[in-house]
Structures are given as C-alpha cells and as structure tokens.
Write a structure and sequence with these properties.
Layout: H1 2-10, H2 12-64, H3 81-95, E1 101-106, E2 109-113, H4 115-119, E3 132-139, E4 143-154, E5 157-164, H5 166-213, H6 232-281, H7 286-317, E6 326-329, H8 330-347, E7 351-356, E8 361-364, H9 366-382, E9 389-396, E10 402-409, H10 442-452, E11 456-461, E12 466-472
Parallel strand pairs: 7-9
Antiparallel strand pairs: 1-2, 1-5, 3-4, 4-5, 6-8, 9-10, 10-12, 11-12
Helix pairs in contact: 2-3, 2-5, 6-7, 7-10, 8-9, 9-10
Amino acid sequence: MYDRVKLFIKSTRFKTAIWYSLVFLILEIVIGSVIYFYLRSSLYEQLDLSLTRQSELIYHFVNEKSIDLYEFTPDSIYSSPDELVYDLAFEAVALNPNNTFIQVRFKDKIIFQTENLRSFHTYLSDSSSEAQIIKTFTNKNLSTHEIRAAVLNKNGYQIITAFPVILINDALNSLTDLYILIAPVFFLISIIGGTLISIKSLSRIDSIIDRTKYITARNLDEKISGDEFDDEYGRLAKTMNEMIIRIKKSIDYMNQFSISAAHELKTPLTILRGEIELALRSKITPEEYREVLQSNLDETLRLIKIVDKLFFISKTDHSLIKINKEKTELNSFILNVIESMKTYAEYRKIKLNFLFEEKIYAEIDTGLMNQVLYNLIENAIKFTDKDKEVDIRLGKINSKKSFISFTNKGEYIPPDLHKKIFERFFRMESSRNRNTGGAGLGLSVVKSIVEMHGGEVDVESKPDGLTTFTVKI
C-alpha cells in the first residue's frame, strides 16, 4: 500500500492535479484581490463624490439666500443661525443620510453643526486654503473608524461634510470573510477537478504504455492506436509508430545483413573445405597440391576482402571512422592506383587510359579514397569485355568541385537498378558467378566513403553497354 501511495505521489497525475489546484488557488487570490481593491476604490470614490456634492449643495442653499450670517439677528422664525442654516440645508442633508457630520463655518464663526458634533463638543477644522479637498481623520469620540470628509472653502464659508467609513469597512470585511470561507472549498474542488482532468487527459498515455509493453521484435508490425488525432498524444503515438518502423527496418536490415554475410562467407569456406577434403582423400602430385594451395590462397584472400569490407561497413554504421583530409594532387594519386591495377588489367586483357587536362588538388583522406579508386577500377576491369578499354577521366566541374569518372563497355545497367547497385550485398544476376561476382559490398563502400568526403557518386549506363561511374568531390 505504501509503495502504491509513493508511486502515485511521484506520478504525473498527482503533480498535474497539484499544479492545477495551485494555479486555480492563485487565480482565485488574484481575482479576489482585484475585486477587493476595485470595490474599495469604488466605494471610496462614491463616498467622496457624495460628500463633495452635499457640501456644494449646502453652500448653494446657504449662499442663495444672501443672508449675513455673521451679523445674524434673531426673529420670529429663526432664533439662531443654526436653525436658519439647517432649514436652508435641510434639502441637501435629506438627500443623503450618509452625511453623519456637517459643520458650516462663516469666516471665523461656526454657524452650524449637526447634533452629534455638538454633543461631543467637537469642532471640525481644516487649515487648507484649497477650494475643495478630501481628507481622512480619526476621532474616537465620533467613531471607532476613520472619518472621510469633504471640505469646501468658498466666499468666506467653510463647509465640512463627513462620514465614517464603517459601511465601507463592513463591506470589505464581509467580502474578506466570504473569500476566507470559500477558499478551502474552491481549493478542494480544484484538487478534485485537477485529479479528474489529469486522469482523463493521461488515460491515453496509459493506453500507449500498455500497448508498448506488448511490442517486441517479433510483432513490430503492430501499431499504437491514436496516431490519427492531431494533438500531443496523437503526435506521441505517431512518433512512436515511426520509431517502431525505424526499429523494424534496422532489425530487418541486421537480419538481412547477417544472412547475406553468412552466405558470402559460406561460399569460399565451402570451396576451401571441399578442396582440402579432396586433397586429403586423394593421392595427388606435388603440382596438384600446388594448384590446391593456390586455390585455397585465392579463397582466403577473398574471405579477407569480404571481412575487411564487412568490418568497414560496421565501423561506418557506428561512426567509428575518422577522416584525415590533406591536400593531395589527384593526378599523381590516381596514376599510382592505376599502376597498381595494370597487372590485373593485363591479365583480363583490358587497357587502362587516364585522361586529364590540368593538375587538380583536393582535400581527401588518401587511405579511404584509395579504396574508392581501387573498387571502381576493379569493377570496370571485371565487367568490361575482353580486349576493350577503360577510360579514367579527371576534371573540374567548377572552381570548388572536381570529378573522377570510370567508363567501360560491358553489361547494360537498367535505370531502375542505378540506386540498388549501391546497396549492400546487391548483385545483378549476371554477375553472380565465381569469376566476376563479388560480395556486393564494393559499391556500398564506395558510396559511404564519397559521402564522408561530402561528395556524391552516380552511374550512367547506355543500352549499348557503355557505362560510366562518376565520383564528384
């Protein structure tokens, strides 16, 4: 049980649910804070507007009567300036009951105060000379909350309308309490929602994992479902299916490589075994022994060449070959390889012609490029009709590229085989004989080396049998 809980805590589902909940909670806090400060600002703005409007209305009603309140004389209606101002300002005061505290001063004399100010013998004062301001002050006798006041200074009058911010504080406190109350509920809902969403969204991952468990080297033809969807999981399934296809191709290639390699090695080994067994069972002359040994040597050299090429291909596949380029005069380099091949050419009654117009230099790995020239010249000699010629040309394509071509007249190579002849172990049917047929690795080695040099090799063959292999470097 503990292991299952530990595994769940480490799972993406749990982490997704937690992150979803945290994001949801942060979003709730941000929205709550925005609402809180917006409401606070809005309430204060409305209160300030109300207080300012009331102070202006009181001034308007008092000033409209044009009564000298400073030299006020009692009459049968008003016994004091308070009664007069209250009567004049009653409409303004009645319009807004929030104006808890009102004080009217004319010059240096207070001519009106609301009852709550007089009962606490409190005077509201402001020394500012500004025509109209909003101020905040505290007075424990009047209210336990801050008091917001609008002050109007105009034509000798100073009118102050004030109101404690108790309603604003109560509204904000209620909002805060509400958020504190619902925050855990929202957090719990977010955890449940995040868990459900993560389970639902990751269920396709589980199906991919379950399907992958059953895919082995024996059933690589099977696919992971869901790659038809154009979303993250669909792309994951598609990528894994593509990977499975690549793995299958690699395994198929390895199997084919192993079968072909075993077949190529088996042929000379079988010949060696047969000739040796025949020599051991029969009484033969020293000259016949010599022929057997010579044949054995030929097959051994053939084995060595096959193994060398297989070893080279293996190193190429694993990027173990390092190229050491150096500036080389291609004319002399090619001529040396041709000289080393003349004996074989004379044996096959083939003439080698080397054609060039100027000295050409190139950055090459001489050891690797020697294999390229040797394989192509050997093939040209091997598949050329007797008493014919092989033309080897060196020239420039442009200021940065050169070419080496090998032209012989022999068997026609159809266009559909131009790419296949560079594949490993591929041989044309007519070349499958002991005298001319190799292991089908030479051209594959040539292609690998040329591509390591950043070049390319191609073939052109005409129906009359005139075939040209061209190396561009």
